[in-house]
Description:
Elements: H1 5-8, E1 13-17, H2 21-33, E2 37-41, H3 44-53, E3 58-62, E4 64-65, E5 68-69, H4 71-80, E6 85-90, H5 95-104, E7 108-111, H6 116-124, H7 140-154, H8 159-165, H9 170-178
Parallel strand pairs: 1-2, 1-3, 3-6, 6-7
Antiparallel strand pairs: 4-5
Helix pairs in contact: 3-4, 7-8
Amino acid sequence: MNSTALDIGEDKSLLLVDDDEAFLRRLAKAMEKRGFAVEMAGSVAAGKAIVTARPPAYAVVDLRLEDGNGLDVVETLRDRRPESRIVVLTGYGAIATAVAAVKIGATDYLSKPADATDVTNALLARTDELPPPPENPMSADRVRWEHIQRVYELCDRNVSETARRLSMHRRTLQRILAKRSPR
Length: 183
């Protein structure tokens, strides 16, 4: 999809909420080049403050932030500006969180790594059309690793409890956790 200012609409305001500062700056620069008027926030509190003061037409919100859950920003934006288009972005993609994000009012849900083109396509997609399949989907090994990481986080980083819930030997889990994520 070729994104021009005409596709965006008259209100080009875009809020980006992510606590990864390097990623936030790169995405902001790329989205500005595509014609959006970008505002950045690095936390739930900052995102909610911007939404309350100046509710944007578009938003890209990371799910897991240092000070809480990005869905709180989504809820606040839905209350302030129901027609806004919101994409939830996360490195911990799971069906349950995708469903929760959409129920609260997100337009779409993308797993990291997502680039500016993926984000733009999700923000500008019409509700009656299906989005194209991702250019670089996660490998099966990466999906497995993401799932293990998510369960590990949900178990407050308790290896024994995570291993029990995954029906996996504790030492096997420790070896997986010690490795870098697969591509």
